[in-house]
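quick one
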Amino acid sequence: MPGVKPSASLTSLMMDKQDVTLTSLTQYARRPGATQSSLLQGARQAPPDEKRNVDNEDKKAVQAPKKKRKKKHGITANLSGTRYEVIRIVCEKCKFDICKEDDPNSYLIWSDSFVSADRITEMKPFQRINHFPGMVEVTRKDCLARNMMKVQRHHADEFNFVPKTWILPADHSMLLNYAKDLKAKKKYRTFIVKPSNGAQGHGIQLYKNAEKIPPSEHFIVQEYIDKPLLLEGYKFDLRIYVLVTSCDPLRIFIFNDGLVRMSTDKYINPSDGNLSNLYMHLTNYSVNKHNEYYQKGDSVDTGSKRSIRYFNDYLRKNDYDIVLLWRRIYDMVVKTLLVAHPHLLHAYRMCRPGAPAGSDSVCFEVLGFDVLIDRKLNPWLLEINRSPSFGTDEKIDFDIKSALIEDTIRLLNIKLSDKRRNYFAQKAEAQKRLFRTTKRNEADMTELEKKKQSIEKRREELKEHLARVRKATAREDFENRNAGRFRRIFPSEDKLKQQKYVNIMSSIFGIVMSGRAPAMQKEIQKVYNNQWREEDILDMIAECEADDKDGKLTSGGSKIPRGPKPLSSMPISVRSPPTEDEFDEEEEEEEAEYTSPPGSPNMNRRESRPPSTKSRPGSLRPDSRVSNDASSLCNSRPNSGVSSMRSRPVSNMSALNSRSKSLSRLHGKQSVLQRSIIDDNFLITVVKEREDELTKKTLLALSDMRIKFPGKTDQEAELILDTLHENWKFHKPRIASYWLVKLDSIKRRKVIDIVRSNVRAVLQRIWRISDVDNLRLYRIFTRVFNRLLWSHGQGLWNCFSTTSQNGSWETIFSKSSENICENEFNCCRRIVQLCRDCLLIVYQFAAEAKSSSQQNSENSELSSAGTLSSRDKSSSTLVAPLNTQTMSQRYSKLYPRADTTAT
Ligand code: ADP
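structure w/ adenosine-5'-diphosphate:
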């Protein structure tokens, strides 16, 4: 088992806003060989003059040897726009080349201030900049208030986490009316007045009497939250770091640490006597550091600035419902960014017209959310900072902020090759434009041509959609592996929550965009709520291609049955569909036999029966023991038979229909009424209880599967695998070139899909669940399949290496917070093994097909030259005695048998 990380705690979060300029701490950090703690100690202990001297000496020491000018050909970072040293330190740690000047072509551009739309427009697709255009809609206090108010009118209950706010001078009379009403009800409130675009607590004042608030321009007034949760008697707020990596589509992450910023005078309810005591009412570091009682923290649980991790521990120890609190905070962050989303999307698309849907975002943003917690554990959003301070006055700042920046950079996935890829993509696009045929007038076209054009259009749309789905899968896979201390909160993994967010998002677009909303709302449903899977789209493309040949366009209604797709290079091997009687017999015997589509290598159960009738090419034989046992879980959920058949690999529609019919007949035979009273919930509970048992059975069934070579027996197929492994040195470069270069991504996926479809069928049968997508085990498998396709097939190729742990599929579990049990892991291992075998068989098949066609042509046309080179021979003829021992040795050496415990 790989080392599995304990699941990241939901609750380890938070932070403080301080705008501290770089301290000597970070200058010290440049000293070669100095550790962070020694630097911090040095920075704390040395008096200022001394520090200056040390610094100068240090500089001299560093400058003494003449530095060689390094040529920069790595990933470049333009940090000329930021004053924060910690960003430079982290970039250097990530091995980025820091540009001396403001290089507009750097891979990474980090700026503390606003970035113009023009600059974002000019950026190349491989570049990244740390701001989004349009973010000001939630980062300026008055804009946030205005946008929130708009949404609150329609969703008052969902957006009740912002204190009641009035924008001056426009809302001044409303404020006075509100105060009058309060007076009439003998209620008394305090109001806080802040500059609309202020920061660091500048210009903030508290009022008990709203009538005294002047209707000044550029100010907002907020109801003062007068019952805050206190920490050791002090008011505090949290600085939570949120990362937005993309707005098209929206992706939001929250960092699992941050700062707790405490005020420095003990809190007392606001009264006329203490309103002006900002050390009591404000929690800004920039305000409180001037108080003589401000404490620099020597450890995590002392001082005026603490970590969110500490805060969580504190809450836990004091029996607060920490999970509830963090759930509320996550919800608040997502909803706030949903409010910003229409603005972000509009501005981004204006800046980047023509960017392919789902392409990497050139913008990202680390936001600082300032959140106050009240005594009822409700979070209140005070403001959002678009350039949160990365000052590192204290060790706690450095620890949290450097980790934050490092994990941010990792999630950006900046690669050196991006630049080159971008260059070639641009070139290809230019060529496409050059050779684009002019559109013909529809009136000049025949009916057939019109239909063809319409099929072509649909095919293009599907391909685009396919690319988007694949991109999303790859992105998700990358994020899962590289999130570090971030946790993704949108899109949410909780399907119900996600549905709710999508509805809110859609509604907000309706509120903000009015007339243009319907098109956007449709797009939202498609992008964020899309149920289409890759297999569905591939089926539809195949359907289009078939229609194209016939010259007809079918509606999306009838689908080609899902299953392993034939590889173009594989022979056609059609099996006639079984008759109803045959099928019934099979069902009764629990010996379901699934025919696979023509031409694909198939998997069947290793067994002693003669292969002549059952193990012909194109057959999959599941394990009968498994079916028998699992049938006790009841298979008569409405439609379960039919829908599970839909996912079974079948040879053609008639097979599907005949099976569906016979299945319903079969259901009729069984006591349908009796079984249908078992409700879904009960079934789910039963399935859960038997999860371990069913996983074991799945493992058994997977262990019994073998990849079938069309036209050959299982023994011959094993022999082929053995021979390939025995001559590995020879085949290795050829297989690498075949898999990584010759096959395109669609074909690579088809190879993996051969295993995937059959695994799905096994799961459906053993777990008696028609929709295996919701099965935890299948979700785990999906991650493995994605991993194998990762990096243009490199994922599977890495699995052929016996030594390299780096990049091995197992790391997806060691880096994720999900715990998987031993049997689940062994199932995954077996799947990887099957995928490896599948590639080898496909490769060998292709090699033989190529070689025999070569031989044919050579025999007929060049009979005089008619011998193959020894290289060709060894790749096409595989003669060796069957050696089952070698086979098992090989498995146990490379991948020890998965089923030792299960059997
Ligand atoms: P700035 O951008 O100037 O820091 P904030 O809105 O963050 O302005 O407010 C500064 C501080 O004032 C906060 O950290 C918090 O302690 C306090 N504060 C702000 N608004 C409220 C409020 N509505 N209720 C209670 N305290 C508040």
